[in-house]
Amino acid sequence: MEKKGYKSAPVINNFKYREDVPDWRTKLPPLLALRLVAARSGVGSIGWSGNILVKGYGATVLLGALVTSAKLNPTDPIPPEESSCDKCKLCVNVCAFRMFDKKEEDSYTLGGYSFSFSKRNNVSRCYTVCGGLSGMDKTRK
After folding, report:
1. Distances (CA, A) of 53 to 22, 83, 92, 112
2. What is the dihedral of CA 64, 36, 61, 29, to 10 degrees?
3. Would you write out the chain's pLDDT as a tens digit for each of its 141 residues?
4. Is pTM, for the whole model, over 0.70?
């Protein structure tokens, strides 16, 4: 973007958290939630897990972003009926540390659009399980 004459700066999405949020150390809320920006801009849709799902790739995507002075035309989110998530809640069943609630929802509104997904437990659970610091699931499956 800078080569095209626009000011820009990368968004650091890890290890920079909103300390103004109560209990921020267990929630680890980012300064800018890239998954919500991606859903709002039509890059993908929010799954029940709260992760971004991109058609053809699922949730196996890494997001990056930058803030720029360029005037860009906004794009609409993917309509709910075209979402990659059918709320089968397989994510609830396969998560070894029970990160996602099967019934309770959280939602956020960004740019006039609301996005709903499972209420999550403490995000440090993700680091423990997906980071390889846990053993076998208590069901032994």
Report:
1. 28, 8, 16, 20
2. 80
3. 999 999 999 887 777 888 998 888 877 788 888 999 999 999 999 999 999 999 999 888 889 999 999 999 989 999 989 999 999 999 888 887 788 899 999 998 988 999 999 998 877 777 677 666 666 666 766
4. yes
Residue 5 phi, psi dihedral angles, 5° rounding: 95, 10
Closest CA to 14 of 126, 135, 105, 134: 126
Pairing between strand 8-10 and 100-110?
unpaired
